[in-house]
Amino acid sequence: MRARNYFVGAAFALLASGMAHSAMAEDLKIGEINSYSLLPAFTEPYRKGWQLAVEEINAAGGINGKKLVVISKDDGGKPADAQTAANELVSSEGVAMLTGTFLSNIGLAVSDFANQKKVFFLAAEPLTDAVIWSKGNKYTFRLRPSNYMQAAMLVEAAAKLPAKRWATIAPNYEYGQSAVSVFKKLMSEKRPDIQWVDEQWPPQGKIDAGPVVQAVAAANPEAILNVTFGADLVKLVREGNTRGLFKGREVVSFLTGEPEYLDPLKDETPEGWIVTGYPWYSIKTPEHDAFLKAYQAKYNDYPRLGSIVGYQTIKSAAAILTKAGSTDADKLIAAAEGLSMPSPFGEITFRKIDHQSTLGAYVGKTALKDGKGVMVDSVYKKGSDYLPSDAEVEKLRPKD
Amino acid sequence: MAFYVVQFLTGLASAASLFLVASGLSIIFGVTRIVNFAHGAFYMIGAYIAFTLTERLSGALGFWGAIVLAALAVALIGVLVEMVLLRRIYHAPELFQLLATFGLTLMVEDLVVLIWGPDDLVGRRAPGFKGAVDFFGQNIPSYDLFLIVLGPVVLGILWLLFQRTRWGVLVRAATQDRDMVAALGVNQKWLFTSVFAVGVFLAALGGALQIPRDAVHHAMDLRIIVEVFVVVVIGGLGSIVGAFVAAVLVSELNAFGILIFPKISIILVFLVMAVVLIVRPWGLFGKPEAPARKTPGLAVNPWRPLTSNERLASLAALVIAAMLPLFAGNYALTVGSEIAIFVIFAVSLHFLMAVGGLASFGHAAYFGLGAYGVAFLAKMAGLPMIVCLLLGPLLGCMGAAVFGFFAVQLSGVYFAMLTLAFAQIVWSIAFQWVSVTGGDNGILSIWPEIWAASPSHFYWLALGVAALVTIALRAMVFSPFGYALRATRDSLLRSEAIGINAKRIQWTAFVIAGTTAGIGGALFAYLKGSVFPDNLGISLSVDALVMVLLGGVETVSGAVIGAIVYKALNIWLVSQTDLSKLVLGGFIVLIVVVFPKGIVGVLEMLAQRRRKSSPPGSPLIAKPIESAE
Q1: Residue B558's closest CA among B566, B568, B550?
Q2: Alpha-carbon span A53 to A32, nearest angstrom
Q3: Closest chain B residue to A33 measured between Cα atoms?
Q4: List of chain A residues whose C-beta atoms are within 8 Å of the C-beta of residue B254
Q5: How close, in Å, is residue A347 to chain B by CA atoms?
Q6: pLDDT (0 to 100) of residue B557
Q7: A200:B262 CB<8 A
Q8: B351 and B512 Cβ atoms separated by less than 8 Å
Q9: A349 at the B interface (CB within 8 A)?
Q10: In this complex, which of A81, A174, A230 lies closest to B574 when CB atoms are compared?
């Protein structure tokens, strides 16, 4: 057997670890992982967001006098690769904490890794409720409003609609499945008179939109819940517009108001959909103004929701590190639990009970303005108002 | 009633898009025998260029002109790729071209983001086909009607081209028997180039025509490439009519299937393919391939066991590798473990491909089953780690026994595609059966016990198992079973004539390879502490293929080197650069050109040549065999 080949592997591995030691010993390092190559439409603005945060933090004197350095890795959309990256960041770079991730399964994989290696992990984007509830652990915190919270915000508006016959269209994977099931559950609680007449589960990224639209129309619903996003959403909207699916029907849609997903639709943006999103053009608060100005000055581009998530992830990490005054995981947890801090959306708090932040989202309606899709009548919904009671959360979350 | 008619027409429109791309792939494969993994990439570039052109050129003429122009431009790129890259490697071992086209695909995925930016692009609607036609209260988009007409029109044009022109006669002849066409004095170079250009043109046209209904983005290629392969195989390789019928079949089954099972889309094409291939081993319209007139290329360098010096050297290298924990950190050791596990995975596929001549496109299924086996045993039964490691791979063994039985009835690309179908079926079960497998959120917290938890201990474990597996498989190559397996690979007819039960031998080999992959998967579950459907997915199967081809499919254990180089490079590039796919793809293309027999294959050839340098080398080795193999 050619065992000599192992030596080559060892050499490569050594090389890989040897390349790493570039940052100064005085720096405070945070490890960041995201699906940069798989989801550039989201992760590019996200990267710009956190880079802005790093710049601001260091301009203001760093963290307790130390310069903040973020070491960023690509996971290529694969949980196994995310763990390799996490391991490199922890074992080889010696980062104080892990942050980032987009896809739910990657968030869970890194969260499990953090639990095993006793490392603090601040999940930025993954929406699955499991990260903080059924598979929650004491090392993992999460920034973005979860599936449950977004569903609860949309249900509040949807329950006021007169529609009784509902159909759902969602991508066939965990995110789509849990979004639909939470929405259905909360909706049926508020409106027992509702009927669910059809559900469509196109594979994520591979929707055959024509037949799906036709099938939903055949069930003749009065309202539709959509959970698809990205390229699938574009195809669905185009087929739906041409085939008249949305005419005379209410549509409630997850995430569609985020510029990442709304902007590509251009003049085909359907009007009057109830959506969650980020109307950066109509938010008039001092916190957001400051963020917007700084962002536009640095990049000469407008922010997407990803920019907010990236920015606030690193800002939150910095706030936690500053308060803890240490990089010890247990001290970081103690510092983070119940910690409040400013954000471009107003003050947020990392809850002690389940480590979810109270960052909220904007709910509004889609509209067409100058051939572009926008969100109108947007209202900010605080995350803290859309979480289940503490008693319920206790039941959902395993004991640490 | 009107609804069913409209649903049928909608299905036809989907079929037309699929057919355009599939027909191109079918033609290319039929003539050149290239498994063109880059076909999806050409489809995507077609869409991107068409987007840019339709935004620039105005009016109806501008739009349609832009579509055709984009397809022509991409065809030109295709010609360049064929002449510069593929021409160099027609003589390489079978499937080696797949490696080149895989490298190209990786590069293209990064390049389109660099050129066109990361955002999804939504192009113009087609002038004259913006609205819908009312059909008894149901709306049919007029663009769908256009596509429904276009499909058969393209089919007709291709039919005329193949039946009524001299070029078409040559293409058909080459599809049937390339060697004979070459023997009759036809200039194959230009025939291949022109066929490649036509195939790429059709792919790009298919992509460009998606502009009015789809978003243009950097993952379009992956979305279509597998599906298109499936359509081509269902139809029968090289059969254009078959591709059309298969496209219609798949699209209609999907259109009506979702009315009853809304979750069927995720697996439908693979189910159809599995059923078709089991019933008709050469697809709906394909013909059995004539027994290949193989030049004994594989027998030129007879395989031999290592000499005692080489054994000592290998042992020494293993000892050195085992000393890694003395001077390397935890991260390097974990990467070392991962590489060792992928060595296990790659040598298991190598055994099937190189020794058995059976290229599996779905080998990750058995790797993943091994991982899930461990997860079930550890999480549900709560068994100790050592028991899980021993029993977990049995799930891979069982999967291989069941699927292998059906798969070995087939050969060549049909075998490969049936293994892919089985792998996708297993994947979709893992993905959909949320209550047992956790769906795409996977099964978490399968961490090793204390004795194996430290990175150095786990590294020794993985290294030891990898060494044992490699030695065992090597021993098998030189056992009577190995000789019998090689006989079935080199000539099925002759091996059966001397009394070898070929199917049973191949089935056994399949089970051995599947179980070995399962061992790799079992270790992988403990290395990562979790199991996801990804572990059974297409991209992992492709990774394994790439490792084997990179090492050299005509060698005894080239996959060891292939796995180390590919995995180490991959991990290192992803960690060091944002453009890892571009660099990795470029590197693969470079290797393909410099090492046309794989890294180990070329090194062995050079060593062989030096050994024989005093008497002039055998002409068979000295120059590539002049045939279109």
Answers
A1: B550
A2: 13
A3: B575
A4: 208, 211
A5: 31
A6: 83
A7: yes
A8: yes
A9: no
A10: A81
- Please list the pLDDT of chain A residue by residue as tens digits (400 residues): 344 444 444 444 444 444 444 444 478 999 999 999 888 989 999 999 999 999 999 999 999 999 999 999 999 899 999 999 999 999 999 999 999 999 999 999 999 999 999 999 999 999 999 999 999 999 999 999 999 999 999 999 999 999 999 999 999 988 999 899 999 999 999 999 999 999 999 998 889 999 999 999 999 999 999 999 999 999 999 999 999 999 999 999 999 999 999 999 999 999 999 999 999 999 999 999 999 999 999 999 999 999 999 999 999 999 999 999 999 999 999 999 999 999 999 999 999 999 999 999 999 999 999 999 999 999 999 999 999 999 999 999 987 6
Q: What are phi and psi of A277, to 5 degrees?
A: 175, -155
Min Cα separation A53/chain B (Å): 20
ipTM score for this prediction: 0.88
Contact A208 B14 (CB under 8 A): yes
Which residues in chain B touch residue A305, judged by CB atoms under 8 angstroms apart?
A: none
Question: pLDDT tens digits, residue range A112-146?
Answer: 999 999 999 999 999 999 999 999 999 999 999 99
Task: Tell me the residue type at B282.
Answer: W
- Taking the Cβ of residue A180 and every Cβ of chain B, the question of whether any pair is shorter than 8 Å is answered with no
A109 touches chain B (CB under 8 A): yes
Instruction: Find all residues with CB under 8 Å of B624, minimum gap 6, and list them.
Output: B91
Q: Cβ separation of A212 and B258 shorter than 8 Å?
A: yes
Residues A62, A63, A66, A68: what is their CA dihedral angle, to the nearest 10 degrees? -70
Residue of A nearest to B567 (CA): A9
> Per residue, what are the HEC states of B290-316?
CCCCCCCHHHCCCCCCCCHHHHHHHHH
> By CA distance, what is A243's nearest residue in B?
B139
CA B492 to chain centre: 24
Strands A340-341 vs A348-349: parallel, antiparallel or unpaired? antiparallel
Q: Is A296 on the interface with B (CB under 8 A)?
A: no
Which residues in chain B have their CB less than 8 angstroms from residue A74's CB? 574, 578, 580
Are the C-beta atoms of residues B439 and B507 closer than 8 Å to each other? Answer: no
A113/B569 touch (CB, cutoff 8 Å), yes or no: no
Evaluate whether B188 touches B182 at the Cβ level (below 8 Å). Answer: yes
Nearest to B331 among A88, A231, A235 (CB): A88
Instruction: Name the β-bridge partners of B140.
Output: B133
Token readout for B400 is 């291989």
Strand residue runs (E) in A217-371:
223-226, 250-257, 274-277, 340-341, 348-349, 361-369
- At B348, list the tokens: 């298991």
User: Which pLDDT score is estimated for B300?
Assistant: 53
Residue A239 sits at the chain B interface (C-beta within 8 Å) = yes
Contact B196, B86 (CB under 8 A): yes
Burial tier of A168 (Cβ tally within 10 Å: 0-12, 13-18, 19+): buried
Tell me whether residues A87 and B144 touch, CB distance under 8 A.
no
Q: Which of A7, A230, A265 sits opposite B321 (nearest CB)?
A: A7
